Amino acid sequence: MSRPLRHVTKHPGRRPGPNTTRELIADTARKHFAELGYDRTSMRQVALAAEVDPALVAHYFGTKLDLFLAVVELPIDPAALIDRVVGGGSECAGTRLATAVLDVLDDEVRRRPMVGMIRAATAEPEAARFVRDFLTRNLLLPIAERLEADHPEYRAGLVMSQIVGFTLARYIVGIAPLATHPRELVAADLGATLQRYLLGELSR
Hints:
By secondary structure, this protein is mostly helical. It has ten helices and no strands.
């Protein structure tokens, strides 16, 4: 006995299968946030680029902030980086941290989520909180504490300000000649500042 044929309604732009569609949207959104920033990326833009119905973006991810937080792939393993920075003692901790930062930012694949996070933080308070929690509380504060620095929270904030400003200047704005300065020289200079922020004398 033959089965009755079912009528299938085609949805323009919709991909076959929820997992494939969700991954497609996520990949597209990840690229948009990294290239355009949080403020200039819209849910509709993502949908058009992914060639899906805009309603699907909201269906799978909710709001734009939810979408951003869902697709940001953290390019750093906090525990491994903390061990790398503090493992060699306090003397060159700043240089090791600067080198680790450059390792991430000089890698195009790992740089995208980092840049996307920082761009989003300048436009969205919740994204800024996310960046603060991830970079400061889960990474920089533990480094300062394990180095037994005084005023670790303040020092972590200073280091955070330097890393964010450096990322904006070298990799987003492209300020010359910083943007093209040799990596080893940048690592040394950035490391000296991070070392002072982590363990140098503070103003009283």
